[in-house]
Write a structure and sequence with these properties.
Layout lengths: L10 H4 L15 E13 L4 E2 L8 E5 H7 L6 E7 L12 E5 L9 E7 L2 E10 L3 E5 L9 E3 L1 H6 L2 E11 L3
Parallel strand pairs: 1-4
Antiparallel strand pairs: 1-3, 2-7, 4-5, 5-10, 6-7, 6-10, 7-8, 8-9
């Protein structure tokens, strides 16, 4: 009878894990992005930005950002609230937003300022310069469509493309 092959852990392939805190200096291949805890992006009914300054930061590898085409000085991280983007982005998720990427590419997630209400939605272009906002939780949050004129009238502005997310369950 044949012996089953020995199972090896792939932990050695990952390499060592460094533990760090707020006082740990950045490595040469790291940058810190502002983590705007005061700013909440709604995945639901919406919340208004109260204050945009923060001392909180999240670390990212320079290569990670470069691979996403993100310039560190044009990126921020914010917390998502609400259930409209569940199960992909549950309430309390954190997203990284590339503030320089505001041209809508169909099916990508964006941070949107909707007359002072900060939201995260999947966007689609519609003829005439309008957009469709789509939630993942379509049972509770139906698509919203806005013409170019309605975008201006309702104060809807694309703030940037979501390039990263983190979810804790």
């Amino acid at each position: 009878m044949l012996e089953p092959p020995e199972l090896l852990s792939n932990a050695t392939m990952i390499g060592p894990i460094d533990v760090w805190d707020d006082d740990t200096p950045l490595d040469d291949d790291e940058v810190e992005l502002p983590f705007l805890k005061e700013v909440e992006l709604s995945a639901g009914s919406g919340r208004t930005a109260v204050q945009k300054s923060s001392t909180r930061k999240l670390r990212f590898g320079k290569v990670t950002l470069r691979n996403q085409g993100v310039q560190p000085d044009q990126a921020v991280c914010v917390t998502v609230h609400g259930n409209s983007m569940e199960p992909v982005l549950p309430d309390g998720s954190t997203v990284g937003v590339d503030l320089s990427s505001t041209t809508v590419k169909d099916g990508k997630m964006y941070a949107v300022n909707h007359d002072g209400e900060l939201r995260v939605k999947t966007l689609y272009r519609i003829p005439g310069g309008g957009i469709r906002m789509r939630s993942f939780n379509i049972d509770e949050h139906k698509d919203e469509e806005y013409t170019a004129q309605e975008l201006a009238e309702k104060g809807i502005v694309v703030l940037g493309k979501v390039f990263w997310s983190s979810v804790l369950y």
